[in-house]
Amino acid sequence: MNIHEQKKHLRTRLKKRRELVSESKRKEKSQQISEYLSEIDEFNHAKNIFCYISYLSEVETHALINGFLDRNLAIAVPKIVDKSEMIAVPLSDLSDLEPDAMGILTPKLNLSASGPFDIAITPGVGFTVNGERLGYGKGYYDRWFSQNKVNIKIGIAFETQLVEQLPTEETDISLDVLVTEERIIDLRKPS
Ligand SMILES: Nc1ncnc2c1ncn2[C@@H]1O[C@H](COP(=O)(O)OP(=O)(O)OP(=O)(O)O)[C@@H](O)[C@H]1O
Ligand SMILES: [Mg+2]
Predict the structure, then answer these.
(1) Distances 59 to 28, 125, 167, 169 between C-alpha atoms, Å
(2) Separation between Cα atoms, residue 98 and residue 103, nearest integer Å
(3) pLDDT tens for residues 139-160?
(4) Structural domains of the chain sorted by starting position, each given as residue range(s) with its CATH number in brackets
(5) Are 118 and 176 in contact (CB under 8 A)?
(6) Is 116 helix (H, G, I), strand (E, B) or coil?
(7) How far is CA 161 from the centre of its chain?
(8) Does any ligand 1 atom lie closer than 6 A to the CB of residue 7?
(9) In this structure, are residues 28 and 35 in contact, taking their beta carbons and an 8 Å threshold?
(10) pLDDT tens digits for 95-133?
(11) Which of 79, 82, 142 best tests ligand 1's pocket when mutated (most atoms within 8 Å of CB)?
């Protein structure tokens, strides 16, 4: 199997695994993940945050985003604008979103937030404790990370999404911090 086939195979397997987390467990674990996030020091100083809007079996972020909005932070959320590009659109209220072609809640505006971002929170299908990440296979996040300045790239995931190894390519961008319902894995080098 070549690397793209390996990734595809793993995506299918790991998506199924994530779907086995029940709705009530998903809520509970997502809440725990939000609590861990607030233990990360930079989180409490961040002013400019990029965060995905959760869809289906992903770690839920609606409450998290509402918490950011309550703190009057500058929030931007992803919008897919063509087959290879995702932009970060400023958000002032979750009710400003509407489902895109995939059914994912997305901002109506096509305005791109300038950044730099103090924190970016990314979803994924699979992760390793070394911060490697497997996404949905379009390279949107990898490209976005290569084009935008982000101080701390955080992946949030359920423990069940962690695997021993992931096939990776040059263009795969790894995370600085991975947070699950059980732990905070900080991969930043001590300065
Ligand atoms: N910065 C980049 N420039 C050009 N091509 C890229 C870049 N990043 C990723 N790609 C390409 O995009 C395709 C999909 O990448 P990959 O399989 O890593 O997606 P993914 O990480 O699962 O998706 P996502 O980043 O959207 O979560 C690959 O062919 C990869 O080479
Ligand atoms: Mg990738």
Answers:
(1) 10, 10, 23, 25
(2) 8
(3) 999 999 999 999 999 999 999 9
(4) 3-186 (3.40.50.10420)
(5) no
(6) coil
(7) 13
(8) yes
(9) no
(10) 999 998 889 999 998 999 988 999 999 999 999 999 999
(11) 142
Task: Tell me which residue has its CA closest to atom 30 in ligand 1.
Answer: 139
Distance (Å) from CA 126 to ligand 2 centroid: 10
- Separation CA 137–CA 56 (nearest Å): 17
Asked whether the bond before 190 is cis by omega within 30 degrees of 0, the reply is no
Band the pLDDT of 191: cuts 50, 70, 90.
low
Per-residue b/e over 7-31, b at no fewer than 16 CB within 10 Å? beebbeebeebbeebeeeebeebbe
CA distance 91 to 64: 13
What are 141's two structure tokens? 């996040």
Q: Any idea which residue has 């063509």 for tokens?
A: 82
